[in-house]
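Incident review: delayed structure delivery

Summary: a single-chain prediction request sat in the queue longer than the usual turnaround. Root cause was a stuck worker, restarted by the on-call engineer. No data loss occurred. The affected request and its eventual output are reproduced below so the record is complete for anyone auditing the incident later.

Affected input:
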Amino acid sequence: MTLAELRAEIDGGASVNAVIERVFFRERATTARALHIWSAPKISEAIDRVRRAERATMATANAGAVLADSAMVAVARMAARQRG
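Output delivered after worker restart:
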């Protein structure tokens, strides 16, 4: 399951503890922290940024690598702002 799918379940009324039980045991703590930090709109925005960067890296005659790096930095900044 993706973080977006887990977040949607929580937004639909499920508890974090109930949702996190389906996550691989070694990833539960990190996933639980991410679920507390990331809202559904922010997850969607991050996915959109990464997808745009992915398409840019596949296109010819552009600065795809630079755009991908920029997208990753933007997503990292989003996460840092949400952590407080």
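Verification: The mean pLDDT is 90.
Action items: add queue-age alerting; document worker restart procedure.
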